[in-house]
Design a protein that fits this description.
heterodimer; A: about 160 residues; alpha+beta; Ubiquitin-like (UB roll); DNA polymerase, domain 1; 2 domains; 5-stranded mixed sheet; 5 helices; 5 strands; B: about 800 residues; Aldehyde Oxidoreductase, domain 4; Aldehyde Oxidoreductase, domain 3; 3 domains; 7-stranded mixed sheet; 6-stranded mixed sheet; globular
């Protein structure tokens, strides 16, 4: 485990060059090397989606990707959603519609939702439920998560709720 | 008076302000235990037993010690030298911290490895060599008391069998007489299977010993930080004023984070010995196989009734599988929790229950998974029996319930097994549910479908819970009275801090408890910041579980706010030069009766409290603390109706409609109440449909990861239709009863009842959870039904 590799990534718009073990998972690099702890770990089997981040805009479970695979690529985590203009519509939706309780699955759930809306700006409830089916939530029963995504969809399309 | 005076101030009771805590969670700025990263922090992994039962001949850690980054391998023998190889459980038993003599379940903790990095700690698991002699296992609790069953607890002196306790409640003779007089006796043998709370965040800690100050700070996934501090003091011998438990943001608890687990103890001992912070975070597999299982009650229930459907008595015999150590989490005097709430919502003259608990070679526990101590199992049993009685008598399931409900004028109602219910209006909740689901139309549809050979069912659950422990005269944990507390301090400018003994794992206390203050004191809820979960900065409390936070901590909050309101009244009277009794208070303003222009706001009174020239004898400041000991439990209730369609060809069950009418008394924040209900119903759906921890004959655990232990995703989760009923608790300061657990307690049996209702024409009277397609398909096939 001695040979470390240099990996350069752009995380939430900021470039980072780090020396890491080849076996390091992307989620561990984000959490422990870069100290961005908003991305969570909830299982060992890629089942829960708490670690979902965007890799070049696509949602990935960062526990199933080696950090070295992210070399030269762009990563967005929950910490990158808010901009100078304010909260991302998805963040706003989760708060307004009570789409979270303990908050543990929330970052991953929001990243999946952001990716869904980028691809499908006007998803049906079924579309939303299918899109987030790889993200487990133990608190909400998903009802208000669906509403949160719908809120964000409307907001992004400029429709006043 | 139970019905609260509703304030018109912003954020008061009954309003649904958005959650304060969300501002950090939606930004990824929560602080969960695994987010704690300290300088010099070391990492711990746990080597676990592959066997369910084996003698340990020797443990060789030399290969692991030679591996990169490994600093220590701690065994049970090492802990024995410090008196820490065994620890007491909440149920008065002992549990191995690290196994010394034998391993007693698959996944039991044997060696703890401390290394510089997490991967190094995990790599070194390969370097642990344990020489075992496998022993015969006892897996089926029904054979645990057989003469030839292997004895699990040979560590207990004189122990020659696997019996843990036998607990009885009610009047056996009176119940026998009731059964002798009965026209009908419904019998049901059913297993409420072993399941797991499985919060999205697993259990873990960062133990941080400071040699310079002698202080041990433990960042802990704890639902009960204060009680855990005291237990750490009692177990580890650390002075309690030198222990600080910080339970920061907790990613769901559901009862999983009530007990103290071996990992916490070893990590803390390691930090103490090494003098550096030590982090231990469970993997998901470790969580599912070792910490905090729930239920596992084999229940035989009998319900006696007249031919007209009048209930006469209930008898329940339970075999409880507690695993290798009795680590059930329940008040000390209640070995089977509040299982004797089993008569539920029904007025019957006699009842008796007996619970026998046994050891088996399975993970220890019996935590109250989103449940007030075995209420879930009890509610399941009675509601299943009642639906079967409806089928037997031919009386409609709703009508049968209404015939037997405890009536509003009977409250406070003394149940045959000894509880005093505070308030209820069961007919009302039922009527709302029947209307919401359009019951008449559904039964008509069902009849038509049956004509066509289609399979549709309607199931009920009219549960009553007992929550809010509460009542220190009968409830303690490790001798600690189950009180809870609130400390309120308002700063000169009228904004302040509320410090709680209870803790939050997602319930939204930072919002709802501020609302209680807003209501009582008349200042906006956003002017109150709520602190909880840090034992150095909050008053003592027993924690958040068993739906007790609002019944106890919420009561304390209302009372402490009222104390300060009275101080405000004295100050206002002083400033307005009138008698305190001449003042009326509404939404933050004191007004002299009959003189609407003579007023003082609560904020003016608060500022005055920090100025000179107060009323004679009054101290400065505007703060107080209250410890609340509930006079009685609270009894939330509700009626749930589930509609299912079953595919005869595959056995697949679809929950087409589910109506939930909950009565939790006063609703502080209706948005949060609904959110709690959605989540609890979905967990109940998981229990009914898919969740199961099981074992093969050698004691290998199935359900040890999220590919085998299924929890509902957004795709399977049903749509929920909620209805509301409000019957305030007469003894709670704001009339609230607690809502967190009702939906998990109440929903599984509604789903099972619906499936059994659907299958009744085929002579099927029971299917045990989880209702997998295969199980339902098999039941249909066994009944001779095909999809042809």
């Amino acid at each position: 485990m001695s040979g470390k590799l240099a990996v350069t990534t752009t995380v939430n718009g900021e470039e980072h060059e780090v020396l890491i073990e080849p076996r390091l998972l992307l989620v561990n690099m984000i959490r422990e090397t870069l100290h961005e702890t908003g991305t969570h770990i909830g299982c060992d089997t890629s089942s829960c989606g708490a670690c979902t981040v965007l890799l070049d805009g696509k949602p990935v479970k960062s526990c199933t990707i080696l950090a070295v695979q992210a070399n030269g690529r762009e990563i967005t985590t929950v910490e990158g959603l808010e901009t100078a203009d304010g909260l991302h519509p998805v963040q706003e939706g989760f708060k307004e519609e009570h789409g979270l309780q303990c908050g543990y699955c929330t970052p991953g759930m929001m990243m999946t939702s952001v990716a869904l809306l980028a691809e499908n700006p006007d998803p049906s409830e079924d579309d939303i439920r299918k899109a987030i089916s790889g993200n487990l939530c133990r608190c909400t029963g998903y009802v208000n998560i669906v509403k949160a995504v719908q809120y964000a969809a409307k907001k992004q399309q400029g429709v006043t709720a | 008076m139970s019905t609260p005076t509703v304030s018109h101030v912003e954020g008061a009771i009954g309003q649904s302000p958005k959650r304060i805590e969300d501002d950090r969670f939606i930004r990824g700025k929560g602080t969960y235990v695994d987010d704690v990263q300290l300088p010099g922090m070391l990492f711990m992994s746990i080597y676990r037993s592959p066997f369910a039962h084996a003698t340990i001949n020797s443990i060789d850690t030399s290969r692991a010690m030679a591996m990169p980054g490994v600093l220590a391998c701690i065994t049970g023998k090492d802990l024995e030298a410090h008196g820490l190889a065994w620890m007491p459980t909440l149920a008065g038993d002992t549990q191995a911290v690290l196994a010394t003599d034998k391993v007693r379940f698959q996944g039991q903790e044997v060696v703890a490895i401390i290394a510089k990095t997490q991967p190094q700690a995990e790599d070194a698991l390969e370097g642990i060599d344990v020489d075992y002699d496998p022993l015969p296992v006892i897996i089926d609790p029904k054979h645990a008391m057989d003469a030839d069953a292997p004895v699990v607890r040979t560590d207990l002196e004189g122990k020659t069998d696997n019996h843990i306790f036998t607990w009885e409640s009610g009047d056996a003779d009176a119940t026998d007489r009731a059964f002798a007089d009965a026209d009908i006796v419904i019998s049901l043998d059913t297993l409420y299977p072993r399941i797991h709370p499985a919060p999205m965040e697993t259990c873990g800690c960062v133990s941080d010993y400071n040699k310079a100050t002698g202080k041990m700070t433990v960042h802990l996934t704890s639902q009960a930080p204060h009680a855990h501090r005291t237990l750490f003091a009692l177990v580890a011998g650390l002075p309690e004023h030198k222990i600080r438990i910080i339970s920061p943001d907790v990613g769901g608890g559901f009862g999983n984070k009530v007990p103290i687990y071996p990992g916490y103890v070893v990590a803390t001992a390691a930090s103490l010995l090494i003098g550096k912070p030590v982090k231990w975070i469970e993997s998901r597999s470790e969580n599912l196989i070792s910490t905090g299982f729930a239920r596992d009650y084999h229940m035989s229930g009998e319900l006696a009734a007249t031919k007209d459907g009048k209930m006469l008595g209930l008898r329940a015999n339970v075999l409880a599988d507690h695993g290798a150590f009795n680590a059930q989490a329940a008040p000390s005097k209640w070995p089977a929790g509040f299982f004797n709430i089993a008569t539920g919502s029904y007025d019957m003259p006699a009842a008796y229950c007996k619970v026998d608990a046994v050891y088996t070679n399975k993970a220890p526990g019996g935590v109250a998974y989103r449940c007030s101590f075995r209420v879930t199992e009890a509610a399941y049993l009675i509601e299943r029996l009642v639906d079967n009685l409806a089928h037997k008598t031919g009386i409609d399931a709703a009508e049968l319930r209404k015939m037997n409900f405890i009536q509003p004028e009977q409250f406070p109602y003394k149940s045959p097994m000894g509880w005093e219910y505070d308030s209820g209006d069961y007919d009302k909740a039922m009527d709302i549910a029947l209307e919401l689901v359009d019951y008449e139309a559904l039964r008509k549809e069902q009849a038509e479908k049956r004509e066509r050979g289609e399979v549709m069912g309607i199931g009920f659950s009219s549960f009553t819970e007992i929550v809010g422990a509460g009542m220190s005269k009968i409830c303690d944990i490790a001798g600690l009275a189950m009180i809870d507390s609130a400390e309120l301090r308002i700063h000169p400018t009228g904004k302040g801090v509320l410090k709680l003994g209870v803790q939050s794992q997602g319930q939204g206390h930072e919002t709802t408890f501020a609302q209680i203050v807003a209501n009582e004191l008349g200042i906006p809820s956003t002017d109150i910041v709520v602190e909880h979960g840090d034992t150095d900065h909050t008053p003592y409390g027993l924690g958040t579980y068993a739906s007790r936070s609002t019944p106890t901590g919420g009561a304390a909050t209302a009372i402490v706010a009222r104390k300060l309101r009275e101080k405000g009244r004295q100050i206002a009277a002083h400033m307005l030069e009138c008698a305190p009794d001449d003042l009326e208070f509404d939404s933050g303003t004191f007004t002299v009766k009959g003189s609407p222009d003579r007023t003082k706001t609560i904020q003016e009174c608060i500022f005055k409290a920090y100025q000179p020239e107060l009323p004679e004898g009054m101290e400065n400041g505007f703060e107080d603390v209250t410890y609340y000991d509930a006079p009685e439990m609270t009894y939330p209730f509700g009626t749930y109706i589930c509609v299912v369609d079953i595919d005869k060809g595959t056995g697949a069950v679809t929950v087409r409609k589910f109506v939930a009418v909950d009565d939790c008394g006063t609703r502080i924040n209706p948005m949060i109440v609904d959110g709690q209900i959605h989540g609890g119903l979905t967990q109940g759906f998981g229990t009914a449909m898919m969740e199961l921890i099981s074992f093969d004959e050698d004691g290998n655990c199935f359900g040890s990861n999220f590919m085998d232990y299924l929890i509902p995703t957004a795709v399977e989760s049903p749509h929920w239709t909620l209805g509301e009923c409000v019957t305030p608790s007469p003894h709670h300061p704001i009339g609230a009863k607690g809502i967190g657990e009702s939906p998990t307690v109440g929903s599984p049996q509604a789903i099972v009842n619906a499936v059994v209702d659907a299958l009744t024409p085929y002579g099927i009277t029971n299917i045990d959870m989880p209702l997998s397609s295969h199980k339902v398909w098999k039941a249909l096939r066994d009944a001779g039904v095909s999809d042809e």
